[in-house]
Structure formats: structure tokens, C-alpha cells
């Protein structure tokens, strides 16, 4: 019988050298910022790697480590191949039920074809533009440079796809997330549709060279659909968002991917709450928790419990909301783990405080909501400029509702300072509501200054 005892990662320990685990963790975080990643590395994580508990890093850490040690592979760093620890065998060892065998028939083709067509026109990207480093700025569409989102190769009818194409789709997802975190969704949505169409066309037009490539491409296409759906959500296109989220959910179920399914339900719940469909928000969050229960990620379950709490708050069920909030805090307190999905880098204490603030605001307690929103707004990370604007917009609204107009105007002004680089219709709508609440107080200097600075955005033309 093969022993399951962890094997210490001596190669990684040698690379740390004379630095303490805390010093090395700080170096990892600095390296992550250099390439637009965000990892919550600490001394405990370094210890888990060196002890062999973490046999392969997630994709975000992989990019950071390979950036820190150029020319080395994961094997050189003492890690195992991803497929040997993340595949069916790993799920079975963790006690999770094996997912259903992915369908290779007309049902799969129909699902993926619908997903491909809902992205817009059926024209796909003309060629692959390669895999470069994540961009530092949002694509402007001017200056003649290559679009940093156009990284997914065009399919060849009847051809075969492999790890290269799967990696291209994963890279497109990362780039969208980095650009969205820094600049918001409004300038990205139309461009992000192209790699999404290409990803589903790859699945629809060819066959995988290996099963691992098929699994990666299914997961990557689903995550890309969720990313594009989020851009639609944040830029005020809820019908488009709903369509992309539904296709991601279909892709998850075709591929037997509970992690993707949980992510899809999280986004579906979020959209339903934003649109006032609170019962649907609760049901979707609960479905996400069922999908995620075998994934060993307390942080994912915490986020889904917060999504459920938001639905209960909208239904004015205070007891159910408080119970869900309690579960969310308990799960969050268990800490981060290597099982946390890569897309959850945004979910730290500020996001937890923000989502709780939304609950108390819906329950009619704006002063309590403002206390949580203030903690969220203390975020100090330029990588998450969009989230900082969002948290301060929530704070401004809660302060306005709780009878603190001057403070609300000051918080609103801070959001306006950020909106030069951040474009988000959702944030602008929150500010518009705050401005309406502050109109009766326009004799106050801070309120007058805020109202003078804020100008309604021109009507946006159709979603396109």
C-alpha cells in the first residue's frame, strides 16, 4: 500500500534560503503584484508548501513562483504534476464523489453550441495572438496595439485541441479578472466576448488530444463565461449576464465540475439579489453550497452563505439572515486553503464586511450597515481599485440613509476620485441613488461640492 504521508518539499525549502517564512511570504506577495496577481501568502502557507501538505500550487501561485524563479518548472520547485493531485484520483482520496463521465455526444454539442451562439455573432477570433504577461493597463482600443484579451486561438474545423489551447483560455480568464479589478467592467465587456466565442468554438469544432485537455478547456470555457457574465452584470446588462451564467452552469453539469457549478450558482445568486429576486437568490446560493460541500474550501462556502444571507435580507427574514451570516463568519474564520478556487482572490475581510453591510442595509439598519461598510472601505490595495470604489459607494449610501449627509458626501467624493480609472455602471447607479438622498441637504458645503462634481452619465446605447 502506498503511504499518503506528506513528503517534505526540500527543493522549495532550499530556494527560501536564509529568509524566514514570513520574509519569503512577503517576497511572494511582492512578486505577485509585479505580474498583476493577488495571493494571500503568509508564513503558514510557506510552511504548508515546505512540509509537502501542498503538493501543487493553484494557478495564481504557479504564475507567481515561475515569475520569481525564471527558467524553472514546477517540478524544479519540488511540486507534483497538477493532474496527479487535482484529477479524479485526488477527488476520490478527498472523499468526494466522482463526477459523472463527461458526455461525448450530441447533448454536449448542443449545450456548447448554444453557449457559443449566445456570445453574439458566430464569427470567432481570426488568429491566436500568443500568451504574454498580464497587461498593466486596460485596453484602450487606440494606438494600434494588440488586444490583450485576444489570446484564444481560432478553432480548426474537425481539428484537435490540447493543453496549449486550454492554457490560452485560462489566460484570457486571468486577464479579464486583472483588468476588471483595476478598471471595472464597462470598457471590457464587448472585447471579452471574442475570447469567449473562440473558447466555445474550440469545444464545438474539434476533439481533445487528451482527456486532461478536455477537462481543462471545459472548466476554462465555463470560467470565461462567468467572467464575461460578470462584466455584463457590472456594466448594467442583466439579461446578457443571466444568459452567460446559465451557459456556464450548463457547461459545469456537462463536464461534471462541482467547482464551476458552485461558482455559477454564486454569480446567479448575486445577480438575482441585485435585481430584487430574493427567493431565487436564496435558492441559488443553497444550490451552490450543495455543489461545494465536497470541495474542502471553507472560504467558498463562506461566500455562498453570504449570498444566501443577502437573499434572506431582501425577504426581510432577519432570523434566517443572521443564521446565514453566522455560518459565513464561522467558515471564513477557518482561513484560506490551497483548495480555494483561483477566482476567489477578491474574497477577503473587506468583501465579507461589504456583503454584510448590504444585508443590514436591506434589513433597514443603515447605521449598522455603515459600520461594516466603513471596515470594507479601509481596503488599501491598488490591485482592487474597482472594489474600493464599490465599498466606498456602499458606505456613502449607508451614511446618507443613516442621517450623516456630510460624511456621505465625503465618501461619495472619494468614489468620484476613483472613477477616472474605474468604469462600472453598477457603482454609478449607487452614486446616483446617494445623490438623490443628499439633495435635501445641498446647503451643506460638502454635499454641494459632491453634487456639483457628479454629473449624470449620458444614456448608454443598447447592450450590443
Query: How big is the Rg?
Result: 22 Å
Question: What is the first-to-last residue Cα distance?
Answer: 59 Å
Average pLDDT metric: 79
Query: Strand content of the residues, in percent?
Result: under 5%
Largest sheet: 2 strands, parallel
- By secondary-structure content and strand pairing, the structural class works out as mainly alpha
**Uncertain ranges:** 86-146, 457-464
Number of strands: 2
Give an account of the 3D structure:
Helix content is 62%, strand content 1%. Among the domains are: 10-93, no CATH class; 103-256, no CATH class. The protein has 21 helices and two strands. The protein has a two-stranded parallel sheet. It has helices spanning 10-16, 21-34, 43-51, 59-68, 82-86, 88-93, 106-118, 163-183, 189-205, 211-234, 238-255, 258-274, 278-292, 298-314, 318-332, 349-362, 366-377, 385-401, 405-418, 425-438, 445-453; strands at residues 160-161, 207-208. The protein is mostly helical and 464 residues long.
What are the defining features of this structure?
55.5 kDa and 49.5 kDa sporulation protein, TPR-like_helical_dom_sf, two-stranded parallel ribbon, mainly alpha
Produce the secondary structure layout:
Elements lengths: L9 H7 L4 H14 L8 H9 L7 H10 L13 H5 L1 H6 L12 H13 L41 E2 L1 H21 L5 H17 L1 E2 L2 H24 L3 H18 L2 H17 L3 H15 L5 H17 L3 H15 L16 H14 L3 H12 L7 H17 L3 H14 L6 H14 L6 H9 L11
Parallel strand pairs: 1-2
InterPro entries: TPR-like_helical_dom_sf
Organism: Streptomyces rubrolavendulae
Protein name: 55.5 kDa and 49.5 kDa sporulation protein
Amino acid at each position: 500500500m502506498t503511504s499518503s504521508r506528506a513528503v517534505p518539499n526540500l527543493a522549495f525549502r532550499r530556494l527560501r534560503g536564509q529568509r524566514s517564512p514570513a520574509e519569503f511570504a512577503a517576497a511572494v506577495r511582492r512578486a505577485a503584484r509585479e505580474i498583476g496577481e493577488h495571493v494571500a501568502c503568509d508564513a503558514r502557507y510557506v510552511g504548508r508548501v515546505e512540509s509537502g501538505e501542498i503538493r501543487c500550487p493553484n494557478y495564481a501561485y504557479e504564475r507567481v513562483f515561475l515569475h520569481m524563479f525564471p527558467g524553472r518548472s514546477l517540478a524544479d520547485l519540488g511540486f507534483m504534476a497538477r493532474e496527479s493531485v487535482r484529477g479524479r484520483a485526488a477527488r476520490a482520496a478527498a472523499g468526494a464523489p466522482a463526477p459523472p463521465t463527461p458526455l461525448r455526444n450530441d447533448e454536449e454539442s448542443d449545450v456548447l453550441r448554444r453557449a457559443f451562439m449566445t456570445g453574439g455573432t458566430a464569427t470567432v477570433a481570426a488568429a491566436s495572438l500568443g500568451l504574454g504577461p498580464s497587461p498593466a493597463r486596460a485596453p484602450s482600443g487606440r494606438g494600434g496595439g494588440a488586444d490583450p484579451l485576444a489570446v484564444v486561438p481560432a478553432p480548426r474545423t474537425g481539428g484537435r485541441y490540447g493543453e496549449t489551447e486550454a492554457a490560452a483560455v485560462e489566460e484570457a480568464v486571468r486577464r479579464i479578472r486583472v483588468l476588471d479589478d483595476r478598471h471595472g467592467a464597462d470598457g471590457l465587456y464587448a472585447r471579452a466576448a471574442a475570447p469567449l466565442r473562440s473558447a466555445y468554438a474550440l469545444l464545438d469544432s474539434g476533439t481533445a488530444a487528451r482527456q486532461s485537455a478536455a477537462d481543462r478547456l471545459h472548466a476554462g470555457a465555463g470560467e470565461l463565461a462567468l467572467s464575461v457574465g460578470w462584466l455584463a452584470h457590472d456594466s448594467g446588462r442583466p439579461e446578457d449576464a443571466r444568459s452567460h451564467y446559465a451557459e456556464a452552469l450548463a457547461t459545469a453539469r456537462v463536464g461534471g465540475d462541482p467547482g464551476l457549478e458552485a461558482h455559477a450558482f454564486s454569480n446567479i445568486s448575486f445577480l438575482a439579489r441585485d435585481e430584487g429576486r430574493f427567493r431565487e437568490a436564496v435558492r441559488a446560493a443553497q444550490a451552490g453550497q450543495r455543489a461545494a460541500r465536497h470541495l474542502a474550501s471553507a472560504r467558498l462556502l463562506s461566500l455562498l452563505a453570504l449570498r444566501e444571507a443577502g437573499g434572506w435580507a431582501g425577504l426581510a427574514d432577519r432570523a434566517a439572515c443572521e443564521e446565514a451570516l453566522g455560518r459565513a463568519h464561522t467558515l471564513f474564520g477557518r482561513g484560506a486553503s490551497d483548495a480555494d478556487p483561483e477566482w476567489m482572490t477578491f474574497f477577503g475581510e473587506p468583501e465579507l464586511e461589504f456583503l454584510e453591510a448590504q444585508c443590514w442595509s436591506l434589513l433597514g439598519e443603515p447605521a449598522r450597515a455603515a459600520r461594516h461598510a466603513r471596515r470594507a472601505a479601509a481596503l488599501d490595495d491598488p490591485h482592487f481599485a474597482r472594489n474600493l470604489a464599490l465599498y466606498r459607494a456602499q458606505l456613502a449610501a449607508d451614511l446618507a440613509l443613516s442621517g450623516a449627509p456630510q460624511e456621505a458626501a465625503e465618501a461619495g467624493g472619494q468614489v468620484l476620485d476613483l472613477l477616472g480609472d474605474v468604469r462600472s455602471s453598477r457603482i454609478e447607479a449607487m452614486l446616483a441613488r446617494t445623490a438623490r438622498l443628499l439633495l435635501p441637504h445641498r446647503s451643506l458645503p460638502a454635499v454641494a461640492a459632491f453634487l456639483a462634481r457628479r454629473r449624470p452619465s449620458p444614456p448608454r446605447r443598447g447592450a450590443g
